[in-house]
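Any chance you could type out a protein's amino acid sequence plus the matching C-alpha cells because I've never seen that pairing?

——
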Amino acid sequence: MYQIKTVSFLIGLFSLLTGLYLKENLSGGAKLDHDYLIPTVIAFSNSLNDGFKLFLSNLGFVVHSPVFYILAGKLLKIFGNLDNVKIFYILISSSLPLIFYQILKLKNRDNIYIYLFSLIIFISPYFRSSSIWLLGDNLSLIFLGLSIVFYLKFKKNENLNFCYYSIFFLSLCCYFRYYYFPFYFFYIFIYFKNQNTKNILKIITFSFLISVPAIIYFIYIIQDYEFLRLINLDSGHNIFNYSTNFIILLSILFFYLIPYIIFYINQLIKYYKKNFLTFLLFSFIFLSIYLVDIFIYENLISFNQNNLGGGIVKKIIDKVYFNSQFFLIIIALITSLVLHFLFRNNLKQNYFLLICLFLCFPSNYIFQKYLDPLFYLFIFGLVKSRYIDFILSKMKKLLIPLYLFSTAFILTTYFVYY
C-alpha cells in the first residue's frame, strides 16, 4: 500500500512538472495573469520599495494582497531564475492533496481509496494552472486546508490550542486571498460554543493581533480615492453583486455535485416525495426571484454581457442560446435541493457555512476557479453531514466514476484552450 501511495503521488507531481515544461494553461487565463503579474514579482525581487512602487501604482494590483508577490519576489532573488521558482512552487502546491488527505482521515477511516480520492486535486485544471503559472491561489488553499485540519481536530477533542492554530492558518490564508475572511465567522460560530468569557476574549484578542498588519495596509490604501472607486456602486466589489453571484455560485456547485447527484438520485427522489412541501417551498423561492427580477426589480439578477466568468454551466447554456437567466435559476433550484438533502441533519451549522461561502465573493465576475478545488475542502472538510460521510465510506465504488468525471472536465478545458 505504501508503494501505491508513493507512486500515485509521484505521478501527480510529475504531471505538474510536465505541464510546466509544456506550458500547460488549462484555465485559460492563468498565463495572462502570470504575464501581467510577473513584473511586480521582479520588482519585489529588487527591493520592497520598488515592488510597492509598482504595486500601488496599478488599481488592478491594489485590490489584491501584495504578500504573495513579495514572497515570490524574495524566492526569485534566492533562486535567481523564474523557472526554478516555479518548480519550487509546484513542490509546495503538491502538499495540498496531502493536506486534503489529512482532512479526509479526520472525517473518515483511513484506506487506500480515501488516499487516491485526495489525489483527485492533481487533475483540477485550476489547481494545475495556479501551480504551473505561479499564482497565489494554491498557497491560500494550502493554509485554508491546514486551518480545516485543526478545526476538525478541535471538533474531536475540544482542545483550545487547535482553535488558535485553526484561526492562525485561516489568517495566513487571508493574507494571500482576502475573500476567504468570511470563514472566520463560521469558526467563531463553532468556537464560541461552550466557551467561557475569558476564552472568548482570548480568541478575539488573538484574532485581532494577527490581523494588525492587514488592518494597517487597508487603512493605508483606503485613503486613496482611486481604491474607493473600485468598491462603488458601478463596478468592482460591492453588496449589489451578491444577488447575481448567489445564482452563479449555485450553478458552479451544481457542476461539482453532478457525480454525487447521480449517486444519490434515488434517495433524493424518495426524500422529496416524502417532503413535498419542502420541494414546493424551494421552488416558490426561486420562482419568486425570477419573477421579481422580470416584473419588479429589473437586473436583480444581471449577468455580464462580455462572457467573462460565470462557470462552465453558464457557458454551456449560453452556447446553446437558452434563456440563461431562467435556466440558471432552475439549476440553482436543483443545487439548493441537493444541498438541503445533504445539510438536513445539521441545518443551522451547514447553512451558516454556505452563507459564509457566498459572502466570500462580492466581485463583478465569478470564475469557476473560485470553487476549484475549494469545493473539496468545503464539502468534505467543513460541511457536517452523515450523507457525505457515507459517500466517503463508499469511495471504493465511487473512485473510478469520480476520476472519469474529473478527467472529462480537464480534457474539455484542454480542447477549449488549446
Q: What stands out?
A: The radius of gyration is 22 Å.
